[in-house]
Amino acid sequence: MPPLVSVGDAPTLVERGRDAAGIALIALLLGIPMIGLSTVDQSGALRVLTRWPLLGVFVAVAFCGRLLLRYALDRLKSRLRTRGRQAAAASARHGRVLTAVGWLAFALALVLPLVFADNRYVVDIATTVLIYVMLGWGLNVVVGLAGLLDLGHAAFYAVGAYAYALLATQFGWSFWAALPVAGLIAAVFGLALGWPCLRLRGDYLAIVTLGFGEIIRVVLVNWTELSGGPNGISSIPRPSFFGLPFAPSGNAPTFASSFGLEFSPMHRLIFLYYVILALSLLTNALVARLRRLPVGRAWEAMREDEIACRALGMNVTNVKLSAFALGAMLGGVAGVFFAARQGFISPESFTFNESAIILAIVVLGGMGSQLGVVLASLVLVLIPELGRDFSEYRMLLFGAAMILIMIWRPGGILAHREPTLRHAAAGGGHA
Questions:
Q1: Widest CA span in the chain
Q2: Which of 147-161, 270-284, 386-400 bottoms out in mean pLDDT, i.e. has the lowest?
Q3: Among 187-191, 315-319, 379-383, whose mean pLDDT is lowest?
Q4: Which of 187, 233, 251, 296 supports an S-S bond with 329, CB 3.0-4.6 Å?
Q5: Rounded mean pLDDT of the chain?
Q6: Domain identity same for 79 and 221
Q7: Are residues 316 and 363 in the same domain?
């Protein structure tokens, strides 16, 4: 039995009866000439007969039918509303779990080099993972948020690395001075890529970005005077700890001597680890902040329906260029760190295989998911390392693992994403 008084948003029995009575009145007005009255021919004269019992049955059926229909619709709306609240609660719980996982990963990342201070292999692998995390977050802006398929992200990685190498070896720039400049140079290259292909989408855009990446690699191989050709650039300066070098040189103060420590080559490796960790955290904070700004919402709107965005008056050209520029800048910053860490770069480090791995990280992690990129980077970096003992079957194991992940989670490891913004309803809830 429905309640006589209103509970929350549920309609009362009186409201349903009033609605059914209105429908019955309409049925009565329409039924009088159509059902209640009829004409017959009696001896050449037209006579009007009444069928009030039949009209009464018609009105009663209309009243009861509307009452039952309204009750069924109200029950359905109530169930849908309950499911929506349950889904919102589940989404909130999922978001809290992801937040907790993110903070746990951050805590582990902070203490990892301290726990493994005497294990160079672990620190090196962790640093490599963070490089790919930063590259994945940069490409995630282009592919995951803006929906633009980019197969040449390694080109911006190379531009940042070579920009720092040339600034450091030819002009004597330090790592910290060259870092933002090399990032801006990579952003300019991102604009140069985005401008000619603004009208392209999908597979056609992928082909253009693939060609752009190969053009950069071929230029680096053949422009020997600038890039050193296939031999690359060596003797790239390593970053120092605010002017304090890690390697001893004469009587000059070093990092170890300034802090009263015994010299260890692990000091430089741990410092580099914390540098890329700080750069990755800044990247995450920047992307998370931009997603809540109009430009970030424009990226996601364009990903869902570019035609609708044009119809609403959005400047799709600027939206695409901003995504390309930001993604390229983040890739260039990662390239600067890679060059500083290695001390040597060559075109072989920036092939299409690198672009494919970075794109695989974004797709496997779940496009648009920041934490998913971290998990996918761990998987794609650690699986080949764990397979080193099976050198003949290493890539077979790598490919099989990727296939199994996509079968298990076709939308990515973290296919569920929390909405960037929630619309507050009038009652204080979330829409």
A1: 134
A2: 386-400
A3: 379-383
A4: 187
A5: 83
A6: no
A7: yes
Residues 72 and 147 in one domain: no
DSSP of 382-402, one letter per residue? Answer: HHHHHTGGGGGGHHHHHHHHH
296 and 339, same domain (yes or no): yes
Q: Are residues 165 and 275 in the same domain?
A: yes
Residue type, 228: G
DSSP string, 78-138: HHHHHHHHHHHHHHHHHHHHHHHHHHHHHHHHHHHHHHTTT-HHHHHHHHHHHHHHHHHHH
Is the whole model's pTM more than 0.90, yes or no? no
| CA 15 to centroid of chain Cα atoms | 47
Considering the domain architecture, whether residues 43 and 145 belong to the same structural domain is answered as no
Query: Does 190 map to a domain?
Result: yes
Element (H, E) at 326: helix 316-342
Q: How do residues 109-153 score in pLDDT, each as one tens digit?
A: 999 998 888 889 999 999 999 999 999 999 999 998 988 888 889
* Among 149, 146, 141, 151, residue whose Cα is nearest residue 202: 149
What is 265-317 written as a DSSP string? THHHHHHHHHHHHHHHHHHHHHHHHHHHSHHHHHHHHHHH-HHHHHHTT--HH
Q: What angle do CA 115, 116, 118 make, to 5 degrees?
A: 125
Most confident range (mean pLDDT) of 74-88, 191-205, 249-263, 341-355 is 341-355
Q: What is the pLDDT of residue 283?
A: 93
Residue pair 3/12 in contact (Cβ under 8 Å)? The answer is yes
138 and 60 belong to one structural domain: no
DSSP state of 243: T
Do both 78 and 171 map to the same domain? no
- Fill in the amino acid letter for 407: I
**324, 99 Cβ separation under 8 angstroms:** no
Cα 410 to Cα 363: distance, rounded to the nearest angstrom: 9
Judge whether 272 lies within some domain: yes
Distance between CA 236 and CA 164 in Å, rounded? 9
Please say whether the beta carbons of 355 and 135 come within 8 A: no
Tokens of 326: 């930001």
Tell me the pLDDT band of 278, cut-offs 50, 70 and 90. very high
Expressed as residue numbers, the domain containing 61 is 13-83
Segment (H or E) for 41:
strand 37-42
Q: Count the neighbouring beta carbons within 10 Å of the beta carbon of residue 2.
A: 16
